[in-house]
Amino acid sequence: MPDPLVKIEGLTRRFDVSKPWLNRVIERDDKQFLTANADVSFEIAKGETFALVGESGSGKSTIAKMVVGLLPPSAGTIRFDGQRIDASLGIPRSLRRRFQMIFQDPFASLNPRWRVGEIISEPIRTFGLMNATDARAEAARLLEVVGLSASDVTKYPHEFSGGQRQRIAIARALSSKPEFIVCDEPTSALDVSVQAQILNLMRDLQDEFGLTYLLISHDLSVVRHMATRIGVLYLGRLVEVAQGKRLFAEPQHPYTRMLLDAVPDLALSGRRRRPVEGEIPNPISPPSGCAFHPRCPLAFDRCRTEIPQPRPTPAGQAACHALDDMVPA
Ligand SMILES: Nc1ncnc2c1ncn2[C@@H]1O[C@H](COP(=O)(O)OP(=O)(O)O)[C@@H](O)[C@H]1O
Ligand SMILES: [Mg+2]
């Protein structure tokens, strides 16, 4: 890949989930750590939509927060256009302006006491990009860009529907003229009919402004129409990465196959459709070896002891011992 816009290497995040000190002393418990992400590496090319999928609790949001510098990694690095992003190192404003984030719940992410015009122009003020008059005009213009009306600048978030509020959140994200937007479940809180409109808007904006997206979703049917490439997370680890269409056509990892089997509206000719079997394990005490082995129909001895490393596949990479036998290293 020629100079990726975003390069993530060995990204790991642990959370201290220990009981309070006194309880630990009395109950003679050790400190407990939860590994939300382990050794995650991927790159995002300029103009691409890289999607991260995985069940709830697989570590998607934790990656999103680290990538935009809201949370420091425990290990590993994130580089944006060659420069380190790390919440614990501080991020220069000139760099910070260049990426934004859109959250799942547009109501929670918009200040209810601010008028829409103020909400949208807040990044413009924060980064000192325009004077107040120009910022107001820009907010009105951005409302039209996202399919709302310029006169909506004087309204409050509660006066809008869920889909409209997500449009406002998008307009706000665009106002600092970012190159890269991290979208964490941007349509998961919306009705199905509205989801498609928001996804179409995101695609149009991507074309118009040359945006690069990290799109996060638990829903494969959402990423299917959006993603250039898709990364599949399982219990904090990336188990497969592939070009979007090919992940659906020729999934390699047994977990990816299980996820695809569970999507109801996919035309999987000749393949049996069944729900995702078993529960996602507790990340405080993950299974040994490949964390997927207790649910995996292909698991053998090695899978219980050794964590599989990513190997090249025809359309990307996958980390699975069962594939090692088929794909030459
Ligand atoms: N601040 C935190 N403290 C402790 N555990 C956390 C924290 N944030 C996330 N986790 C845990 O990390 C794991 C991954 O969470 P998250 O990244 O939110 O997953 P996803 O977005 O895929 O649902 C979960 O087990 C979650 O409980
Ligand atoms: Mg999440």
UniProtKB/TrEMBL annotation:
Membrane topology type: Peripheral membrane protein
- Primary subcellular site in the record, as a coarse category: membrane
Q: Name one GO molecular function term.
A: ATP binding
The protein's UniProt keywords, in alphabetical order, are: ATP-binding, Nucleotide-binding, Transport
Q: Where is this protein localized, as stated in its record?
A: Cell inner membrane
* Gene3D superfamilies tied to this protein: P-loop containing nucleotide triphosphate hydrolases (3.40.50.300)
Give start and end of each ABC transporter domain.
6-260
**UniProt keyword annotation of ATP-binding present:** yes
Pfam families to which the protein is assigned, alphabetical: ABC_tran (PF00005), oligo_HPY (PF08352)
The record's annotation in InterPro entries points to: AAA+_ATPase, ABC_transp_ATP-bind, ABC_transporter-like_ATP-bd, ABC_transporter-like_CS, Oligopep_ABC_C, P-loop_NTPase
- Output the superkingdom of the source species: Bacteria
What is the similarity comment for this entry? Answer: Belongs to the ABC transporter superfamily.
**What PANTHER family has UniProt attached to this entry?**
D,D-DIPEPTIDE TRANSPORT ATP-BINDING PROTEIN DDPF-RELATED, TRANSPORT ATP-BINDING PROTEIN
Spell out the protein name for this chain. ATP-binding cassette domain-containing protein
The species is Arenibacterium halophilum
